[in-house]
């Protein structure tokens, strides 16, 4: 049985979902910003232990994770401001047109983006960086690619609402805490810590994706599946759907 979705003048195949997320692993985890491996422990109450291997009636674990450090996550402007609504409130479910592009540079600049013909229908930009080994999915990051502020401003001019990158942060890992690329994306002034009318609160940044090399650059339908957690950054699972041409 076929399942198609039409977005604008394009038709996409819903039966061919391609997962570009890194799962949160409790054994072989990706890690950034010095975070230790995620932890899970069987829940224990009275005589119940949440582990079948330990004699429990079922598995039931309590976990310790850091969404920003342990896998693919989607964040809202609440990442850099105080007292802001969490991701599930600010970021409406997204199913729209995305463009996948690949770069072989560390600091992605406006000049790099201008070499790409961005399609006018695109609402989401997906950035893959080379080299792109599969061990990106369990790498411990001490250094990584990032986006220059002028590149972010270029995305803003193009009306990009959802930015997805395969590195831990759109800002350099060491940036003195300024987060200028995040601020530029959400129209938040340097030093500003509270919401204001200028802030683009419906835009999202997704970091630590992994796009396999088999997936070619180009146009896709994108659905960003986010966990319903009241946080500024939540584990997420972006799925791509190929166009039927
Ligand atoms: Zn983050």
Overall description:
With 245 residues, this protein is of the alpha/beta class. It has one domain: Glucose Oxidase, domain 1 (3-Layer(bba) Sandwich). The protein has 5 helices and 16 strands. The strands form 5 sheets. Strands 8-14-13-11-9-15-16 form a 7-stranded mixed beta barrel. Helix 4 runs parallel beside helix 5. It is globular, with a radius of gyration of 19 Å. The mean pLDDT is 97. The structure holds zinc ion (ZN). The site of zinc ion (ZN) has 6 residues, from strand 8. Zinc ion binds next to strand 8.
Name the features.
245 residues, Glucose Oxidase, domain 1, two-stranded antiparallel sheet, 16 strands, binds zinc ion
Helix-strand blueprint:
Elements: E1 4-7, E2 10-13, E3 18-19, E4 39-42, E5 44-45, E6 48-49, E7 61-64, H1 67-70, E8 73-75, H2 87-90, E9 94-103, E10 107-108, H3 110-114, E11 124-129, E12 146-147, H4 149-157, E13 162-165, H5 180-186, E14 204-207, E15 218-226, E16 233-242
Parallel strand pairs: 9-11, 10-12, 11-13, 13-14
Antiparallel strand pairs: 1-2, 3-16, 4-7, 5-6, 8-14, 8-16, 9-15, 15-16
Helix pairs in contact: 4-5
């Amino acid at each position: 049985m076929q399942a198609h979705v039409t977005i604008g003048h394009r038709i996409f195949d819903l039966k061919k979902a391609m997962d570009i997320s890194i799962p949160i692993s409790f054994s072989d985890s990706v890690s950034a910003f010095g975070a230790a491996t995620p932890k899970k422990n069987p829940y224990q109450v009275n005589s119940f232990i949440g582990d079948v291997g330990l004699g429990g009636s079922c598995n039931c674990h309590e976990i310790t994770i850091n969404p920003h450090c342990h896998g693919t996550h989607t964040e809202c402007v609440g990442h850099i401001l105080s007292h802001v609504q969490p991701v599930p409130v600010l970021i409406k479910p997204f199913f729209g047109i995305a463009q996948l592009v690949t770069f072989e540079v560390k600091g992605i600049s406006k000049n790099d983006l201008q070499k790409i013909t961005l399609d006018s229908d695109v609402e989401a930009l997906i950035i893959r960086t080379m080299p792109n080994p599969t061990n990106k999915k369990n790498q411990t990051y001490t250094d990584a690619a990032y986006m220059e502020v002028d590149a972010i401003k270029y995305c803003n001019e193009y009306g990009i609402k959802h930015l997805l990158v395969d590195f831990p942060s759109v800002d350099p890992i060491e940036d003195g805490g300024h987060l200028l690329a995040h601020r530029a994306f959400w129209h938040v002034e340097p030093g500003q810590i509270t919401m204001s009318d200028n802030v683009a609160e419906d835009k999202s940044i997704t970091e630590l994706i992994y796009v396999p090399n088999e997936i070619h650059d180009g146009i896709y339908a994108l659905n960003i599946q986010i966990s319903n957690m009241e946080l500024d950054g939540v584990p997420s699972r972006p799925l791509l759907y190929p166009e039927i041409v």
